[in-house]
């Protein structure tokens, strides 16, 4: 997901396989690992499981997850904190704070207007929580809150998508200067806002932990769940706040390691490894990452999993052709989207509990999974490339039903993030 390439969307899974983990040796290994290293994980009902139980969860198939209504409401820890997860998208005549032609930091594949997307209705919706008010983004307030600080986005191309949204929002009052760029497709970049002495950077790290991406020679990812990725961890001493955003790369074939030991693999049928699902290793990756950030006392915001909206084949004309949001009860949060969010929320709650006595560490989930699920109209779709129908309709065309148009729904992610930061400053 470094760039929007057709093979990614072609291979994007729509169904998950849950398999048994039959070997007793691995049971003992997982129990030992979790006892020695990992935090206790709260269950959906609020109780805390033991480290052994957390490890054993990897060994057992789980029942299908329930709909989202109970889960999304259960994470509230205070009546004084706004629950943004439940609400609806309402029409808004004001439209976005910026336009695509005025912002120069939008990745080409997400600049839907310049690529000829004919419908503009997707730009005129705002998220309205059921029980509280979400203010419009105020760039001056954001810059003041991060004055003299370094904010880093760490993750995959959804992290970059949110970062570029933030840059466009802030550029309406202060011009960002690109001071560093490196890597294929500019995967590592840093901007400086001289008006407030603010640095904003992005680090490509689609697993958070140490990992090696698949290639032609090795057609599966290799993840080391016991250590964070040094491409971003080496700079932690100069970073004040981190936004984490990953997920979709965990759906691809992968072999999972802990130290030098192979724990199993996901969809790597050509290897003689035990097949495991990726939900629990996904949680382990967040556990390792959050532990490292707690130890460094760096403020953290975890942007939860952002669902894709493929309907049918990745290259069909109707892959993601909707032009308005889902109604409030039209689509339930379930299946893979539910499970990915649940694992993230479990680790956020556990990390906050372990750091509750620390006055120098702040952590919050930017829970956008349900909000994103309700916006099938916000993706580039076939307009990931310029003017895809300039020469007439085609039978097949690549579609991006994962990332978000800029301007677009992902600007709301940053509105919620700003509100979290304002509450931190109280």
Automatic annotation (TrEMBL):
Family of the protein in this entry: Belongs to the PC-esterase family. TBL subfamily.
Domain Trichome birefringence-like C-terminal: 134-419
Chain segments annotated as transmembrane: 20-39
The UniProt record lists the keyword Transport: no
Major place of residence: membrane
Membrane topology category: Single-pass membrane protein
Source organism of this protein record: Artemisia annua (Sweet wormwood)
Keyword Membrane: yes
Name by which UniProt lists this protein: TRICHOME BIREFRINGENCE-LIKE 27
Pfam families recorded: PC-Esterase, PMR5N
């Amino acid at each position: 997901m470094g760039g929007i390439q057709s093979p990614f969307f072609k291979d994007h899974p729509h169904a998950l396989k849950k398999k048994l983990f039959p070997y007793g040796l691995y049971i003992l290994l997982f129990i030992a690992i979790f006892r020695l290293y990992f935090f206790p994980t709260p269950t959906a009902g609020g109780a805390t499981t033991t480290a052994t139980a957390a490890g054993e969860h990897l060994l057992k198939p789980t029942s299908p997850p329930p709909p989202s209504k109970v889960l999304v409401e259960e994470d509230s820890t205070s009546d004084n904190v706004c629950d943004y997860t439940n609400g609806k998208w309402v029409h808004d005549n004001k439209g976005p704070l910026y336009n695509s032609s005025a912002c120069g930091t939008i990745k080409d594949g997400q600049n839907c207007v310049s690529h000829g997307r004919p419908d503009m209705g997707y730009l005129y919706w705002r998220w309205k929580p059921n029980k509280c008010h979400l203010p419009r983004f105020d760039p001056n307030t954001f810059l003041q809150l991060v004055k003299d600080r370094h904010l880093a986005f760490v993750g995959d191309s959804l992290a970059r998508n949110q970062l570029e949204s933030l840059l466009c929002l802030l550029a309406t009052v202060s011009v960002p200067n690109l001071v560093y760029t490196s890597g294929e497709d500019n995967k590592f970049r840093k901007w400086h806002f001289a008006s407030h002495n603010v640095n904003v950077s992005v680090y490509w790290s689609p697993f958070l932990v140490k990992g090696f991406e698949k290639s032609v020679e090795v057609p599966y990812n290799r993840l080391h769940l016991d250590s964070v990725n040094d491409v971003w961890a080496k700079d932690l001493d100069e970073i004040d706040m981190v936004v984490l955003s990953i997920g979709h790369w965990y759906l691809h074939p992968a072999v999972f390691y802990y130290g030098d030991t192979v724990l199993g693999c996901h969809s790597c049928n050509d290897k003689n490894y035990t097949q495991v699902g990726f939900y629990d290793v996904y949680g382990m990756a967040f556990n390792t990452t959050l532990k490292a950030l707690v130890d460094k006392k760096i403020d953290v915001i975890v942007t939860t999993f952002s669902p894709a909206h493929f309907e049918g084949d990745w290259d069909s004309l109707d892959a993601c052709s909707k032009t308005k949001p889902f109604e409030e009860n039209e689509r339930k949060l379930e299946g893979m989207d539910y499970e990915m969010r649940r694992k993230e929320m479990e680790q956020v709650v556990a990390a906050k509990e372990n750091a509750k006595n620390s006055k120098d560490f702040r952590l919050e989930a930017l829970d956008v999974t349900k909000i994103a699920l309700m916006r099938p109209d916000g993706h580039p779709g076939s307009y990931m490339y310029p003017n895809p129908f300039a020469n007439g309709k085609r039978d097949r065309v690549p579609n991006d039903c994962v990332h978000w148009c800029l301007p677009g729904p992902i600007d709301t992610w940053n509105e919620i993030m700003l509100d979290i930061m304002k509450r931190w400053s109280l």
